[in-house]
Each structure stands twice: as structure tokens, then as C-alpha cells.
Model the fold of this input.
Amino acid sequence: METMTSTDSTQILAENYIGRLGYFSRERVEIIPITYYFDPEHNSVLSYSGQGNKIEAMRKNPLVSFQVDEITNLEKWKSVLIYGRFEELTGIDAKHMLRIFSQGVKKVIKNKEHSYPDFIQNFSSKEESSDTPIVFRINIDELAGRERV
Done:
């Protein structure tokens, strides 16, 4: 196993759109998959959610972790782990970043899978709802990558 450079770790984040978010909830750690977009301009991970336990938990304790993997087999894999802070976006910032998220994920899917999703619902698990989405970012405090090639 080898340590990846910061540049290589960032590239793994930029080339993927599904990762696992870790956060504290009800005196334990929860880990769930989410759709995300790596925002290089702000060195952060963007996502959105409906109101619920995950958002409430991160509002109470904004320290989170986030992991992205590319696994070919037992002997060939790459994994990036982020430690960061949850930041809820509001107003015009939230609308702007939701658009950046949507366009960014579409581009990653196009490059990675050669498919062309038209709408956010085509690549996000958030169900249709009349609720306003809660847009958030994970501001990266620490980034570490490992690989076996």
C-alpha cells in the first residue's frame, strides 16, 4: 500500500460522484453514501439533502469525514479520506451551488460513464418533494489518499 500525493487524491475526488459521508448522530457514527461534486474553486465537496436526521446531526456537530474509493480488485484500489466541516448554504449561495453541483455531476458522469443525464433526479437519490433542498458543502481540513497498484 502506498500513500497518494495530494494532487492524485484530489483527482480521485474530481473523477467520481458517489462517496460515503461519516457524521455523529445519537452518540454513534453514521456512514451513508451520497452523490457529491468536488468543487475545486472552494476546495470542498458539494451535496444536498432533504431535511432529516443527517442534516440535524451535522448542524449539531459539523465535524465530518468523507471517503471515495475506486476498487478494481483486492490488489488494485485507490481510496481518499477527507476530514472536514459541514457548512449549510442558504439563499442565493445555495441556489448557485446547487446549479454548480448539478452541472458538475453531469460532467463527471459524461466523462466517466459516457451517459448524459438530463435532470438532477437521474443521478441523485433524493426523492421528489416540495421541500426546498438543503445545499451544503464539506470544507476540507485534511485530505489523505492511499492506493495499491
